[in-house]
Amino acid sequence: MKTATTIVRILMRLTGLVLVVLGVLFWTGNARGVIPVHQLLGFVLVLCLWVMAALAARAGVQPGLVALAVVWGLVVPVLGLTQDRLLPGSAHWLIQVLHLLVGLGAIGQGENLAGRILSRQVPAPQP
After folding, report:
1. 34-80: per-residue pLDDT in tens?
2. Of the residues 46, 85, 107, 115, which has the maximum number of CB atoms within 10 A of its CB?
3. Pick from 109, 79, 114: nearest CA to 96
4. Are 77 and 42 in contact (CB under 8 A)?
5. Contact at 8 Å (CB) between 9 and 108?
6. What is the DSSP string of 23-78?
């Protein structure tokens, strides 16, 4: 389970980094043509969060934290796919900030679950 957790954690970190960079490019009015890539990577991030939640459940992490990650994983794409229709006009930046915070929250939850999974792993005895 340690290997799977580490792989999913690294994938979440890389995906999150690319998503933030693309988000900043969009926010500055650049790279609008790659929004579908951003959306696809957002789904990858959510899938990683759900895999991490499943690993956490199997490792015996608190069920409330696992459930929160699963629900958070539903909120991320709903907000991401509907954000253009929310608060149009001069206040739309609030939705953009919310979208950023929800995405960072997903990454943070994945990190939290990974840390809890890895702390539960018993090291192999040394000869």
Report:
1. 999 999 999 999 999 999 999 999 999 999 999 999 999 999 999 99
2. 46
3. 79
4. yes
5. no
6. HHHHHTT--GGGHHHHHHHHHHHHHHHHHHHHHHHHHT--HHHHHHHHHHHHHHHH
